[in-house]
Design a protein that fits this description.
10% strand; Spore Coat Polysaccharide Biosynthesis Protein SpsA, Chain A; alpha/beta; nine-stranded mixed beta sheet
C-alpha cells in the first residue's frame, strides 16, 4: 500500500521542515506544490526528498490542491498544510490504520489542536479530514476554506474517526495577535463570492468569521444568522456561528437576558458540547449567581471529559480558567480546602496567572514556610528564569518574608538578577537602612516613579530613624513629602484629593511588608482627607489582603462620616456583612446582610451570601427565618435565567 504526502506552500521556510519531518518515514513520496515562494521553502522541501512543482497562483486554494493530487501516485493521499504536523509521532499509525480500514471508508478524520504560534498556547480543537483515497472523483472545492467532496452524484464521503491517541495533528498557523490581518485577507476573497452564498451558505459563516476577526461584531452576527437560517449543516463547524453570535453580543455588552437566550438556543442544539455550558457558567458568575455558576463550571468539566464529537471545541484551552473561578466561588463560601485545590489545578495548567497565585498565597500564608516552598516548587521550575521572576514578583504582594528571601536568593545566584523586588525581600527581613539606600538612589534617578517614592517612604518609616524621615521632607516633593512632614510635626493637616492614590499606594506597601507600627501611623493620616470615601478605599485595600476586622472598622468610619442619604451606604453595609461572614461571625453577618437588603442592595450575590451564612445560624433564629422568607420571595426572580 502506497501513501503519498501532498502539500501546497508559499514562503513556509519556518514550518515546512517540521511538517515533513513528522511523516516522511511513513510515505512513499512527498509532493510539494509551490505557489510563488521567495524564501527557502523550495530548497528545504527538496533537501527533505520532496518532488517540487511550481504553480501560478490564481487565488483558488482548491485548484492548487487538486493540482498537487494529480502529481501523486499513491493509493492514499496524506494532505497537510505546511503549518500542520503530526504530534507525538502518531504518523507511524497511519499505514496500520489504513490496512485495517473497511473498504467503505473514503477518508480518515482525526483531532487537530490549533496552537497559537505567538505563545504556544492551545486555542481550540476540531476534527478534520487530512487522509483520503486517491480517486478521480474525490477533490477539493471552494477557492478559500476548501473542502473535500466526492463529485459522483448523491455520493458522500465516509470518514473514519481516528482516536486522538492514534492520530493527532497540531496546527500552528493562527495567532490571536494577527487574527485581523488574516481575516481582512480572506474577507476580500469571500466577498467576491457573496453572490454564490444562497447556493453555498458556508460562505456566510466564513464571512462571519472574518468580520469577527476584525472586531466588526454586528456584521459577524448578521452573517452567522444568515448561515443558521439557511439550515445548512457544516460538519465540524455547526457550533461556530452560535459562538460568533454569543461572543459578539458579549463584546457589544448586550442585555444579559438576550445573551442568555442565545446561549440556551445553542445548548438545546448542542447539549453535549462543553463550550456553551462554559458560556452559561461565565454569565452566571458575572450575574453573581455563584452556586449556579459553580454547577455549570462543574458540568462543563464533566462534558469535556466525556466529549467525543467532531464539532469544534475551545474548552480544552481554557480549563485553567474554569478551575480558577471554581476556586474563587469556593473561597466565597469559606471552603478554603476546595479553593486551594482548585487554584493549584488552575496553575498546573497555566502558571502565569498573577491573581490566581495571589489568591493561593492568601490561603497558604499561615502554613509552615517549608510547606509553602514545597507547594510552589511543585508548580514552578526555579531553573526557568521567567517562572522564578514571576514567583518572586508575586511574593512581594504578600507578607511572606522567609519565602520571598528563599526565592530571591535563588534568582540572584542563578540568574544574577537583582531588580527592585530585592527591596521587598530586604524590607520584609528588617534591613531598612540598606533598602533606604537603594530606594533613595532609585528615587533620585527617577523622581516621578511612584513605586520608588512609596518604597523610599516605607523604608524610612520602618527604620524608625527620624534622620531618614527628615531627608524625605527636605528632598522629596509631592504627596509623600507632605505625609512624612505631617507625621513629624504631629499636627492636623488637610490633604487634597489628588493625594489619595499616593496614600493608598503607601498603605498597600506597608500592608504587604507587614510593619504594623508604621501602618498604624499612616492609617491615622486618613483623618486628613476631607472626603469620607478615603475610608472606602482603605477598607477595600484591607479586604483585598483579607484583613477583615480592620476592613470593617474602616467601613464603619465611612458610615459614621457619610450623609444619611449617601447611595453608597448599602454597598458598604454589604461589604461589612461579607467581612463578618469571612470571619465566620454569622450572627453579625446576617444582621449586616439584612440591613444592606433593606437599604436597597439587590445584587444577586447578597442572596448567595445570605444562603451560605444561614448555614451558620441556629435553626429557629429570628434573623435566619427572615432571611429564609426573603430568599423564598426572591427565588423566582433569581432562577429565571437558567430555565
Amino acid at each position: 500500500m502506497k501513501l503519498s504526502a501532498c502539500m501546497i506552500a508559499k514562503n513556509e521556510e519556518k514550518n515546512i521542515a517540521k511538517c515533513i519531518e513528522s511523516y516522511k518515514d511513513v510515505v512513499k513520496e512527498i509532493v510539494v506544490v509551490d505557489t510563488g515562494s521567495t524564501d527557502k521553502t523550495v530548497e528545504i522541501a527538496k533537501s527533505m526528498g520532496a518532488k517540487v512543482f511550481h504553480y501560478t497562483w490564481n487565488n483558488d486554494f482548491s485548484d492548487a490542491k487538486n493540482f498537487a493530487i494529480k502529481q501523486a501516485k499513491g493509493e492514499w493521499i496524506l494532505f497537510l498544510d505546511a503549518d500542520e504536523y503530526f504530534a507525538n509521532d502518531t504518523a507511524q499509525n497511519i499505514i496500520p490504520l489504513i490496512k485495517r480500514l473497511h473498504a467503505s471508508f473514503d477518508t480518515i478524520a482525526c483531532k487537530m489542536k490549533n496552537i497559537d504560534y505567538a505563545n504556544g498556547k492551545m486555542l481550540d480543537e476540531i476534527t478534520h479530514v487530512r487522509i483520503f483515497r486517491r480517486d478521480r472523483n474525490i477533490c477539493y472545492v471552494n477557492s478559500i476554506h476548501e473542502m473535500l467532496i466526492n463529485k459522483t452524484k448523491n455520493k458522500n464521503l465516509r470518514a473514519f474517526l481516528a482516536d486522538e491517541k492514534e492520530l493527532l495533528i497540531h496546527h500552528t498557523g493562527y495567532s490571536l495577535s494577527n487574527r485581523g490581518e488574516k481575516a481582512e485577507r480572506n474577507l476580500e476573497l469571500l466577498l467576491l463570492e457573496l453572490d454564490k452564498a444562497p447556493e453555498k451558505p458556508a460562505i456566510y459563516q466564513y464571512i462571519s468569521d472574518c468580520y469577527f476577526g476584525i472586531n466588526e461584531w454586528e456584521l459577524a452576527m448578521k452573517y452567522a444568522r444568515l448561515f443558521i437560517d439557511s439550515g445548512t449543516k457544516f460538519i465540524g463547524y455547526n457550533v461556530k456561528p452560535h459562538q460568533n453570535i454569543i461572543d459578539s453580543m458579549l463584546h457589544l455588552k448586550c442585555n444579559a437576558n438576550d445573551i442568555l437566550e442565545e446561549i440556551h438556543v445553542a445548548l438545546r442544539k448542542f447539549p453535549s458540547n462543553p463550550s456553551f455550558r462554559f458560556y452559561l457558567a461565565n454569565m452566571m458568575y458575572d450575574l453573581k449567581k455563584y452556586d449556579t455558576s459553580y454547577a455549570e463550571y462543574k458540568m462543563t468539566l464533566k462534558l469535556q471529559e466525556e466529549y467525543d464529537d467532531i464539532e469544534i471545541n475551545s474548552v480544552p484551552s481554557i480549563i485553567y480558567y474554569i478551575y480558577y473561578y471554581l476556586g474563587i466561588i469556593a473561597s466565597h463560601r469559606n471552603d478554603y480546602e476546595e479553593a486551594l485545590t482548585s487554584y493549584v489545578e488552575s496553575l498546573k495548567r497555566e502558571k502565569m496567572q498573577a491573581d490566581c497565585l495571589y489568591r493561593l498565597l492568601l490561603i497558604i500564608k499561615s502554613f509552615p514556610e517549608q510547606d509553602i516552598i514545597l507547594l510552589l516548587n511543585s508548580l514552578y521550575d526555579v531553573n526557568q528564569e521567567e517562572e522564578l521572576k514571576f514567583v518572586v514578583s508575586n511574593l512581594t504582594t504578600i507578607n511572606l518574608p522567609t519565602v520571598l528571601a528563599y526565592y530571591s536568593a535563588i534568582r540572584s545566584k542563578r540568574f544574577q538578577q537583582d531588580d527592585i523586588t530585592v527591596v521587598y525581600m530586604l524590607l520584609a527581613n528588617g534591613q531598612y537602612d540598606k533598602t533606604l539606600e537603594i530606594t533613595r538612589d532609585c528615587y533620585i534617578n527617577e523622581p516621578s516613579n511612584k513605586l520608588f517614592s512609596s518604597l523610599t517612604v516605607a523604608s524610612a518609616m520602618m527604620s524608625d530613624n527620624r534622620e531618614h524621615l527628615y531627608w524625605i521632607v527636605e528632598n522629596m516633593i509631592g504627596a509623600m513629602q507632605v505625609f512624612v512632614d505631617t507625621l513629624l510635626r504631629d499636627k492636623f493637616a488637610v490633604f487634597p484629593q489628588e493625594y489619595k492614590q499616593d496614600y493608598f499606594d503607601l498603605v498597600t506597601r506597608l500592608l504587604q511588608l507587614g510593619n504594623e507600627k508604621s501602618l498604624e501611623k499612616i492609617i491615622n493620616l486618613s483623618q486628613c482627607f476631607e472626603n469620607e470615601d478615603v475610608f472606602i478605599g482603605l477598607g477595600n485595600i484591607f479586604l483585598r489582603q483579607e484583613r477583615f476586622a480592620e476592613a470593617v472598622e474602616l467601613y464603619l468610619q465611612f458610615l459614621d462620616h457619610a450623609k444619611s442619604d449617601d447611595q453608597r451606604a448599602f454597598n458598604i453595609v454589604f461589604a461589612i456583612g461579607l467581612c463578618r461572614f469571612k470571619q465566620r461571625d454569622y450572627q453579625n453577618a446576617a444582621a449586616a446582610f439584612l440591613q444592606a437588603y433593606e437599604l436597597g442592595y439587590k445584587e444577586n450575590d447578597i442572596y448567595e451570601f445570605m444562603r451560605w451564612n444561614n448555614n451558620g445560624l441556629p435553626e429557629n433564629d429570628n434573623v435566619r427565618l427572615e432571611i429564609v422568607r426573603i430568599l423564598g420571595a426572591e427565588e423566582g426572580r433569581l432562577n429565571y435565567e437558567v430555565h
